[in-house]
Amino acid sequence: MLNKLINFSCQLIIPVIAIGSLSFSATVMANNGWNPVIPYNPPGVVLNLKKKNIGLVRTGSYLVNAIGNCNSCHVAPTKTTPPSSSVYSSGDPFKGEVAVIDFARYLGGGRIFGAIAAKPATATTPEVIAFKGYTADNLRPDISGKPAGLTKDEFINVMRTGKDPHDATRIIQVMPWPVYQNLSTTDLKAMYEYFRALPTASPLTP
């Protein structure tokens, strides 16, 4: 009888603890602070955890923010002239300042790498053919909820093969996919789940 009472008591207590934890994490997110449930998620970056795998989002946040530093390349450039690719809205950690991630531009894409302007041949130099370069994708979900407009399998394929999702004949030269391809499938799914938890954003072109 005592064992039955203990088991029944545990069944009553566990849901209360779970509800309390969920309430706490929701409050922290509302205050835009570091969310202890989702470590390494930058302050100001509010996540939508509804119908998300919280365990995968946690791992994904670690991989995206603490290991991959994806925002350093996929941050949307500012509309200033010249455009800035700084990831911060204020503060510079290299100057000992408290840095704040620019949430509006976080992982919004649009930064251009490797563009080359055309130059005619001269007596001493060959012709240079223009190259439009690579534009970093917006990694936040589109209106259908797909990060970068990619399904999970498409995202994993890009990370494994480096093939440009917009042109499968072209290999992306500026993303370190040869390193990322060594991540486990579970880790790549975790990154995708973290991206899924972000709000949508339109890329800001320079």
Question: Numbering strands along the chain, what is their spatial order in the largest sheet?
Answer: 1-2
Low-confidence parts, pLDDT < 50 over ≥5 residues? 1-35
Count, helices = 6
Radius of gyration: 22 Å
Helix content: 25-40%
Count of the separate structural domains:
1
Q: Could you report the average pLDDT, rounded to the nearest whole number?
A: 78
Question: Strand share of the residues?
Answer: 5-15%
How would you sum up the global shape? globular
Order of helices and strands: HHHEEEEHEEHH
Derived from helix and strand composition plus strand pairing, the structural class reads mainly alpha
Strand tally is: 6
Q: What does the main sheet amount to?
A: 2 strands, antiparallel
Distance between the termini: 71 Å
Protein architecture, described:
The chain has one domain (47-196). The protein has helices at 2-30, 54-67, 71-74, 152-161, 177-180, 185-196; strands spanning 88-90, 100-101, 112-113, 134-135, 163-164, 167-171. Strand 5 (163-164) and strand 6 form a beta hairpin. The strands form three sheets. The chain has a two-stranded antiparallel ribbon. Helix content is 35%, strand content 8%. By secondary structure, the chain is mainly alpha-helical. It contains six helices and six strands; from the N terminus they run H-H-H-E-E-E-E-H-E-E-H-H. It is globular and about 65 Å long. Residues 1-35 have low confidence and may be disordered.
What brief labels describe this structure?
single chain, about 210 residues, mainly alpha, two-stranded antiparallel ribbon, two-stranded antiparallel sheet, 6 helices, about 10% strand, globular, disordered N terminus, Cytochrome c domain-containing protein, heme binding, Cyt_c-like_dom, signal, Cyt_c-like_dom_sf
